[in-house]
Amino acid sequence: MSKLLCECGHVISDTTDDLPYKGELVAAGDHERVWSPLPELQGTTDQRWDAVTAIRMAHCRDMYECTSCGRLWIERLPGTRDFVSYASESGKVENILGPTGGRAA
User: Fold this and answer.
1) Which residues of 30-67 are buried (b: 16+ CB within 10 A; e: fewer)?
2) How is 22-61 classified by DSSP, letter by letter?
3) Would you say 59 and 18 are in contact if contact means Cβ atoms under 8 Å apart?
4) CA Rg value for the chain
5) How does pLDDT run across 43-69, given as a tens digit for each residue?
6) Residue 104: which pLDDT band, with cuts at 50, 70 and 90?
7) Helix (H) / strand (E) containing 16
8) Which candidate, 57, 62, 55, 61, places its Cα nearest to that of 35?
9) CB 35 within 8 A of CB 29
């Protein structure tokens, strides 16, 4: 996806890596399929990276938080580019998809 128009009129752009308003969603029912094959991956670094990418593409849904209104946009199924939105109860940007630094709240 390169652009998504939010209901508030803001254009959400995805044209680079490491966006603070983009995340990935893995359904709880997919955790085993996503995480269990990783320790057994064989091959060169590039081959293992390709395998991880294929797993992500099959099971991870893209998510975006509008930086104007805070609405979340979640892909219905991986790779479909069909999004459903959810409004923040606070009505403001919460930056919930930004990096955590590996720390739990």
Assistant:
1) beeebeeeeeeeeeeeeeeeebeeebeeebbbbbbbbe
2) EEEEE-GGGHHHHHTTGGG--S-HHHHHHHHHHHHHHHEE
3) no
4) 15
5) 888 998 898 889 888 999 999 999 999
6) low
7) none
8) 55
9) no
Taking the C-alpha atoms of residue 18 and residue 14, their distance in angstroms, rounded to an integer, is 10
Tokens of 71: 């609405």
> What's the one-letter identity of residue 10?
H
Sequence-separated (6 or more) residues with CB below 8 Å from residue 66 = 6, 8, 10, 12, 21, 72, 73, 93
Express as a percent the part of the chain with pLDDT over 70: 95
Name every residue whose Cβ is closer than 8 Å to that of residue 47 and which is 6 or more positions away in sequence.
Answer: 41
Look up residue 5 and give its DSSP letter: E
